[in-house]
Protein backbone atom coordinates (compact mmCIF):
# COMPACT_ATOMS: atom_id res chain seq x y z
CA UNK A 1 0.00 0.00 0.00
CA UNK A 2 1.31 3.44 -0.89
CA UNK A 3 0.87 6.08 1.78
CA UNK A 4 0.01 9.63 0.90
CA UNK A 5 1.86 12.11 3.09
CA UNK A 6 2.64 15.77 3.46
CA UNK A 7 6.12 16.59 4.72
CA UNK A 8 7.29 20.09 5.58
CA UNK A 9 11.06 20.10 5.61
CA UNK A 10 11.52 23.14 7.80
CA UNK A 11 14.85 24.60 8.84
CA UNK A 12 13.68 24.41 12.42
CA UNK A 13 11.67 21.20 12.34
CA UNK A 14 10.34 18.58 9.99
CA UNK A 15 6.60 18.08 10.13
CA UNK A 16 4.92 15.00 8.72
CA UNK A 17 1.26 14.15 8.29
CA UNK A 18 -0.09 11.00 6.70
CA UNK A 19 -3.44 10.81 4.95
CA UNK A 20 -6.06 9.50 7.34
CA UNK A 21 -4.26 10.55 10.54
CA UNK A 22 -5.35 13.89 11.93
CA UNK A 23 -2.26 14.76 13.92
CA UNK A 24 0.97 15.83 12.27
CA UNK A 25 4.15 15.01 14.13
CA UNK A 26 7.33 16.94 14.31
CA UNK A 27 11.04 16.23 14.65
CA UNK A 28 13.48 19.09 15.35
CA UNK A 29 15.78 19.53 12.34
CA UNK A 30 18.92 18.85 14.27
CA UNK A 31 21.46 16.04 14.06
CA UNK A 32 24.67 14.98 15.78
CA UNK A 33 27.23 12.30 14.89
CA UNK A 34 26.04 8.99 16.35
CA UNK A 35 28.00 6.52 18.47
CA UNK A 36 27.49 3.65 20.93
CA UNK A 37 25.84 5.55 23.73
CA UNK A 38 25.72 4.59 27.39
CA UNK A 39 22.12 4.19 28.33
CA UNK A 40 21.43 4.67 32.03
CA UNK A 41 17.71 4.67 31.56
CA UNK A 42 15.98 3.94 28.31
CA UNK A 43 13.85 6.79 26.95
CA UNK A 44 10.11 6.25 27.31
CA UNK A 45 9.38 6.73 23.65
CA UNK A 46 11.09 6.00 20.36
CA UNK A 47 10.66 9.60 19.25
CA UNK A 48 12.99 10.79 22.03
CA UNK A 49 15.91 8.64 20.93
CA UNK A 50 16.15 8.47 17.16
CA UNK A 51 19.51 6.81 16.60
CA UNK A 52 19.87 5.82 12.96
CA UNK A 53 22.15 4.69 10.17
CA UNK A 54 21.05 5.96 6.79
CA UNK A 55 21.80 4.74 3.35
CA UNK A 56 20.58 6.92 0.53
CA UNK A 57 21.93 7.50 -2.97
CA UNK A 58 21.07 11.18 -2.46
CA UNK A 59 23.39 11.69 0.53
CA UNK A 60 27.04 12.57 0.05
CA UNK A 61 27.99 10.22 2.89
CA UNK A 62 26.43 6.78 2.97
CA UNK A 63 25.85 4.48 5.90
CA UNK A 64 26.65 7.09 8.53
CA UNK A 65 25.22 6.99 12.02
CA UNK A 66 23.31 9.98 13.39
CA UNK A 67 21.43 11.05 16.47
CA UNK A 68 18.38 12.84 15.13
CA UNK A 69 15.95 15.37 16.59
CA UNK A 70 15.35 15.26 20.33
CA UNK A 71 18.39 13.05 20.96
CA UNK A 72 20.67 15.63 19.31
CA UNK A 73 19.11 18.61 21.05
CA UNK A 74 21.50 18.73 24.00
CA UNK A 75 24.49 17.34 22.23
CA UNK A 76 27.70 19.39 22.16
CA UNK A 77 28.37 18.44 18.54
CA UNK A 78 24.88 19.08 17.27
CA UNK A 79 24.25 20.88 14.02
CA UNK A 80 21.43 23.28 13.33
CA UNK A 81 20.97 24.87 9.94
CA UNK A 82 22.43 28.26 9.12
CA UNK A 83 20.96 30.85 6.82
CA UNK A 84 23.51 29.94 4.18
CA UNK A 85 22.18 26.37 4.00
CA UNK A 86 19.87 25.49 1.14
CA UNK A 87 17.19 23.13 2.32
CA UNK A 88 16.67 21.74 -1.18
CA UNK A 89 20.23 20.42 -1.20
CA UNK A 90 20.91 19.96 2.51
CA UNK A 91 22.01 16.50 3.62
CA UNK A 92 20.94 17.24 7.17
CA UNK A 93 17.36 18.00 6.16
CA UNK A 94 17.17 14.85 4.08
CA UNK A 95 18.51 12.78 6.98
CA UNK A 96 15.82 14.07 9.31
CA UNK A 97 13.12 13.74 6.63
CA UNK A 98 14.01 10.11 5.88
CA UNK A 99 14.11 9.33 9.59
CA UNK A 100 10.63 10.81 9.93
CA UNK A 101 9.27 8.82 6.99
CA UNK A 102 10.82 5.58 8.29
CA UNK A 103 9.61 6.16 11.84
CA UNK A 104 6.09 6.93 10.66
CA UNK A 105 6.13 3.76 8.54
CA UNK A 106 7.01 1.64 11.57
CA UNK A 107 4.78 3.21 14.21
CA UNK A 108 1.73 3.14 11.99
CA UNK A 109 2.34 -0.61 11.70
CA UNK A 110 1.47 -0.70 8.06
CA UNK A 111 5.02 -1.17 6.87
CA UNK A 112 5.10 -4.45 4.99
CA UNK A 113 7.93 -6.84 5.82
CA UNK A 114 9.98 -7.57 2.74
CA UNK A 115 12.80 -10.07 2.49
CA UNK A 116 14.50 -11.05 5.73
CA UNK A 117 13.87 -8.46 8.37
CA UNK A 118 13.57 -5.34 6.29
CA UNK A 119 10.29 -3.50 6.51
CA UNK A 120 9.18 -1.53 3.53
CA UNK A 121 7.14 1.64 3.33
CA UNK A 122 6.12 3.42 0.15
CA UNK A 123 5.07 7.02 -0.12
CA UNK A 124 3.67 9.60 -2.45
CA UNK A 125 4.56 12.88 -0.83
CA UNK A 126 3.72 16.53 -1.09
CA UNK A 127 6.34 19.00 0.09
CA UNK A 128 7.56 22.51 -0.64
CA UNK A 129 10.30 25.10 -0.98
CA UNK A 130 10.52 28.82 -0.18
CA UNK A 131 9.46 31.28 -2.89
CA UNK A 132 13.02 32.19 -3.73
CA UNK A 133 14.35 28.65 -3.97
CA UNK A 134 11.44 27.17 -5.87
CA UNK A 135 12.20 28.02 -9.50
CA UNK A 136 15.83 27.03 -9.35
CA UNK A 137 15.74 24.07 -7.00
CA UNK A 138 12.41 22.28 -7.20
CA UNK A 139 13.73 19.75 -9.68
CA UNK A 140 16.92 18.76 -7.87
CA UNK A 141 14.92 18.70 -4.63
CA UNK A 142 12.41 16.29 -6.13
CA UNK A 143 15.19 14.09 -7.50
CA UNK A 144 16.86 13.85 -4.10
CA UNK A 145 13.65 12.71 -2.46
CA UNK A 146 12.59 10.19 -5.07
CA UNK A 147 13.81 6.59 -5.05
CA UNK A 148 14.82 4.04 -2.45
CA UNK A 149 16.45 4.88 0.83
CA UNK A 150 17.21 2.76 3.87
CA UNK A 151 17.00 3.68 7.54
CA UNK A 152 18.16 1.40 10.36
CA UNK A 153 17.25 2.26 13.94
CA UNK A 154 19.95 1.32 16.48
CA UNK A 155 19.51 2.13 20.18
CA UNK A 156 16.00 3.56 19.65
CA UNK A 157 13.61 2.06 22.22
CA UNK A 158 10.91 -0.16 20.68
CA UNK A 159 12.56 0.06 17.28
CA UNK A 160 15.96 -1.39 18.12
CA UNK A 161 17.70 -2.85 15.05
CA UNK A 162 14.68 -2.37 12.80
CA UNK A 163 15.57 -1.68 9.21
CA UNK A 164 13.14 0.13 6.94
CA UNK A 165 13.28 0.63 3.22
CA UNK A 166 11.66 3.98 2.45
CA UNK A 167 10.50 4.28 -1.12
CA UNK A 168 9.35 7.64 -2.40
CA UNK A 169 7.42 7.07 -5.62
CA UNK A 170 6.24 10.57 -6.38
CA UNK A 171 6.82 13.99 -4.92
CA UNK A 172 4.74 17.09 -5.59
CA UNK A 173 6.68 20.24 -4.76
CA UNK A 174 4.79 23.44 -4.00
CA UNK A 175 5.56 26.78 -2.41
CA UNK A 176 5.75 27.54 1.30
CA UNK A 177 2.88 29.70 2.43
CA UNK A 178 0.86 29.02 -0.72
CA UNK A 179 0.17 25.43 0.32
CA UNK A 180 -0.90 26.77 3.71
CA UNK A 181 -3.54 28.93 2.05
CA UNK A 182 -4.75 25.97 0.01
CA UNK A 183 -5.25 24.15 3.31
CA UNK A 184 -7.23 27.04 4.80
CA UNK A 185 -9.36 27.34 1.67
CA UNK A 186 -10.40 23.69 1.40
CA UNK A 187 -11.91 20.78 3.30
CA UNK A 188 -10.14 17.41 3.54
CA UNK A 189 -12.23 16.36 0.55
CA UNK A 190 -10.65 19.33 -1.31
CA UNK A 191 -14.01 21.00 -1.65
CA UNK A 192 -14.04 24.73 -1.08
CA UNK A 193 -14.34 25.74 2.54
CA UNK A 194 -13.46 29.43 2.39
CA UNK A 195 -14.66 31.21 -0.73
CA UNK A 196 -12.81 34.42 0.11
CA UNK A 197 -9.40 32.73 0.16
CA UNK A 198 -10.24 30.37 -2.68
CA UNK A 199 -11.34 33.08 -5.12
CA UNK A 200 -9.65 36.17 -3.77
CA UNK A 201 -6.28 37.87 -3.91
CA UNK A 202 -4.52 37.01 -0.69
CA UNK A 203 -1.24 38.23 0.75
CA UNK A 204 0.76 35.85 2.92
CA UNK A 205 3.63 36.42 5.31
CA UNK A 206 4.95 33.03 6.34
CA UNK A 207 7.57 33.41 9.02
CA UNK A 208 9.82 30.36 9.27
CA UNK A 209 13.06 29.79 11.09
CA UNK A 210 15.40 31.02 8.38
CA UNK A 211 13.15 32.36 5.63
CA UNK A 212 10.05 34.51 5.46
CA UNK A 213 7.91 34.00 2.41
CA UNK A 214 5.49 36.48 0.89
CA UNK A 215 3.56 34.64 -1.76
CA UNK A 216 0.61 36.45 -3.32
CA UNK A 217 -2.17 34.04 -4.17
CA UNK A 218 -4.75 34.89 -6.81
CA UNK A 219 -7.63 32.45 -7.04
CA UNK A 220 -5.34 29.76 -5.63
CA UNK A 221 -2.56 30.38 -8.16
CA UNK A 222 0.78 31.93 -7.27
CA UNK A 223 1.35 35.38 -8.65
CA UNK A 224 4.76 35.30 -10.30
CA UNK A 225 5.28 39.01 -10.27
CA UNK A 226 4.37 39.96 -6.72
CA UNK A 227 5.46 36.89 -4.76
CA UNK A 228 8.62 37.42 -2.85
CA UNK A 229 10.89 35.87 -0.25
CA UNK A 230 13.31 37.15 2.38
CA UNK A 231 16.35 35.39 3.74
CA UNK A 232 15.41 36.15 7.32
CA UNK A 233 13.37 34.34 9.91
CA UNK A 234 12.80 34.01 13.61
CA UNK A 235 16.09 32.10 14.05
CA UNK A 236 17.99 35.28 13.29
CA UNK A 237 16.44 36.81 16.41
CA UNK A 238 16.68 33.66 18.52
CA UNK A 239 20.43 33.62 17.82
CA UNK A 240 20.69 37.25 18.91
CA UNK A 241 18.85 36.41 22.15
CA UNK A 242 21.22 33.50 22.78
CA UNK A 243 24.21 35.82 22.32
CA UNK A 244 22.82 38.50 24.61
CA UNK A 245 21.92 36.01 27.35
CA UNK A 246 25.43 34.60 27.16
CA UNK A 247 26.99 38.06 27.33
CA UNK A 248 24.81 39.15 30.22
CA UNK A 249 24.74 35.99 32.37
CA UNK A 250 27.32 33.56 30.94
CA UNK A 251 24.51 31.11 30.29
CA UNK A 252 24.74 29.28 26.97
CA UNK A 253 21.68 27.66 25.41
CA UNK A 254 22.75 24.31 23.92
CA UNK A 255 20.66 24.93 20.80
CA UNK A 256 18.29 27.38 19.21
CA UNK A 257 15.56 24.77 19.54
CA UNK A 258 16.01 24.77 23.34
CA UNK A 259 15.43 28.50 23.52
CA UNK A 260 12.48 28.29 21.11
CA UNK A 261 10.85 25.63 23.28
CA UNK A 262 11.18 27.86 26.35
CA UNK A 263 9.70 30.84 24.56
CA UNK A 264 6.85 28.63 23.39
CA UNK A 265 6.12 27.56 26.95
CA UNK A 266 6.67 31.06 28.33
CA UNK A 267 9.42 29.89 30.65
CA UNK A 268 11.61 32.92 30.85
CA UNK A 269 13.49 32.06 34.02
CA UNK A 270 16.87 30.39 33.64
CA UNK A 271 18.81 28.57 36.30
CA UNK A 272 22.41 29.58 36.96
CA UNK A 273 25.00 27.56 38.89
CA UNK A 274 24.85 28.35 42.62
CA UNK A 275 21.08 28.55 42.78
CA UNK A 276 20.95 31.85 40.94
CA UNK A 277 17.96 32.58 38.74
CA UNK A 278 17.47 35.25 36.13
CA UNK A 279 14.57 36.38 34.03
CA UNK A 280 15.37 36.74 30.34
CA UNK A 281 11.98 38.13 29.37
CA UNK A 282 13.32 41.64 28.75
CA UNK A 283 15.96 40.35 26.33
CA UNK A 284 13.38 38.26 24.48
CA UNK A 285 10.96 41.20 24.28
CA UNK A 286 13.59 43.50 22.93
CA UNK A 287 14.55 41.25 20.03
CA UNK A 288 11.04 40.09 19.24
CA UNK A 289 9.86 43.69 19.13
CA UNK A 290 12.61 44.41 16.65
CA UNK A 291 11.60 41.36 14.60
CA UNK A 292 7.97 42.43 14.58
CA UNK A 293 8.75 45.94 13.39
CA UNK A 294 10.78 44.49 10.55
CA UNK A 295 8.02 42.05 9.57
CA UNK A 296 5.36 44.74 9.63
CA UNK A 297 7.52 46.99 7.45
CA UNK A 298 7.95 44.20 4.93
CA UNK A 299 4.21 43.48 4.90
CA UNK A 300 3.42 47.17 4.33
CA UNK A 301 5.88 47.28 1.47
CA UNK A 302 4.34 44.21 -0.18
CA UNK A 303 0.82 45.52 0.28
CA UNK A 304 1.72 48.90 -1.25
CA UNK A 305 3.31 47.16 -4.25
CA UNK A 306 0.22 45.06 -4.81
CA UNK A 307 -2.79 47.06 -3.62
CA UNK A 308 -5.20 44.45 -5.00
CA UNK A 309 -4.43 42.26 -2.00
CA UNK A 310 -7.68 41.90 -0.03
CA UNK A 311 -6.27 40.56 3.20
CA UNK A 312 -2.94 39.49 4.65
CA UNK A 313 -2.36 36.26 6.55
CA UNK A 314 0.58 36.00 8.94
CA UNK A 315 1.45 32.34 9.45
CA UNK A 316 4.30 29.90 10.21
CA UNK A 317 5.88 29.11 13.57
CA UNK A 318 7.32 32.62 13.64
CA UNK A 319 3.82 34.10 13.53
CA UNK A 320 2.88 32.17 16.67
CA UNK A 321 6.00 33.47 18.40
CA UNK A 322 5.64 37.07 17.28
CA UNK A 323 1.86 37.55 17.25
CA UNK A 324 1.50 39.96 20.19
CA UNK A 325 4.52 41.97 19.05
CA UNK A 326 3.30 42.14 15.44
CA UNK A 327 -0.20 43.22 16.48
CA UNK A 328 1.42 45.95 18.48
CA UNK A 329 3.67 47.08 15.64
CA UNK A 330 0.88 46.91 13.04
CA UNK A 331 -1.23 49.58 14.70
CA UNK A 332 -4.50 50.03 12.80
CA UNK A 333 -3.43 47.79 9.88
CA UNK A 334 -5.54 44.63 9.94
CA UNK A 335 -3.66 41.35 9.76
CA UNK A 336 -4.98 37.82 10.07
CA UNK A 337 -3.56 35.12 12.29
CA UNK A 338 -4.65 31.48 12.52
CA UNK A 339 -4.38 28.67 15.03
CA UNK A 340 -1.75 25.95 14.52
CA UNK A 341 0.05 28.23 12.14
CA UNK A 342 3.22 26.12 12.03
CA UNK A 343 1.26 23.11 10.70
CA UNK A 344 -0.63 24.82 7.88
CA UNK A 345 2.01 24.11 5.27
CA UNK A 346 2.30 20.43 6.02
CA UNK A 347 -1.46 20.01 5.90
CA UNK A 348 -1.44 21.95 2.63
CA UNK A 349 1.29 19.75 1.16
CA UNK A 350 -0.80 16.67 1.87
CA UNK A 351 -3.74 18.24 0.07
CA UNK A 352 -1.55 19.29 -2.86
CA UNK A 353 -0.31 15.71 -3.17
CA UNK A 354 -3.93 14.54 -3.12
CA UNK A 355 -5.09 17.09 -5.67
CA UNK A 356 -2.21 16.57 -8.06
CA UNK A 357 -2.91 12.86 -8.03
CA UNK A 358 -6.45 13.73 -9.03
CA UNK A 359 -5.14 16.44 -11.40
CA UNK A 360 -7.65 18.88 -10.02
CA UNK A 361 -6.19 22.04 -8.56
CA UNK A 362 -3.30 24.08 -9.96
CA UNK A 363 -1.46 25.00 -6.75
N1 LIG B 1 3.82 29.02 19.67
C1 LIG B 1 5.09 29.34 19.48
N2 LIG B 1 5.71 30.21 20.30
C2 LIG B 1 7.00 30.53 20.12
N3 LIG B 1 7.77 30.06 19.14
C3 LIG B 1 7.21 29.20 18.28
C4 LIG B 1 5.86 28.78 18.38
N4 LIG B 1 5.59 27.93 17.39
C5 LIG B 1 6.73 27.82 16.69
N5 LIG B 1 7.71 28.58 17.21
C6 LIG B 1 9.08 28.76 16.72
O1 LIG B 1 9.03 29.44 15.49
C7 LIG B 1 10.14 29.07 14.69
C8 LIG B 1 9.72 28.82 13.27
O2 LIG B 1 8.98 27.63 13.21
P1 LIG B 1 8.58 26.97 11.83
O3 LIG B 1 8.12 25.61 12.14
O4 LIG B 1 7.67 27.84 11.05
O5 LIG B 1 9.99 26.93 11.06
P2 LIG B 1 10.45 25.96 9.91
O6 LIG B 1 9.29 25.70 9.00
O7 LIG B 1 11.09 24.78 10.47
O8 LIG B 1 11.55 26.86 9.19
P3 LIG B 1 11.63 27.37 7.66
O9 LIG B 1 10.25 27.72 7.23
O10 LIG B 1 12.58 28.53 7.72
O11 LIG B 1 12.19 26.23 6.91
C9 LIG B 1 10.77 27.90 15.38
O12 LIG B 1 11.96 28.33 15.99
C10 LIG B 1 9.74 27.45 16.39
O13 LIG B 1 10.33 26.85 17.51
MG1 LIG C 1 8.53 26.59 7.34
TrEMBL record:
It comes from Paenibacillus whitsoniae. SUPFAM superfamilies: Actin-like ATPase domain. CDD domains: ASKHA_NBD_ParM_Alp7A-like. Residues 205-324 form the Actin homologue MreB-like C-terminal domain. InterPro entries: ALP_N, ATPase_NBD, MreB-like_C. This is ParM/StbA family protein. Residues 6-177 form the Actin-like protein N-terminal domain.
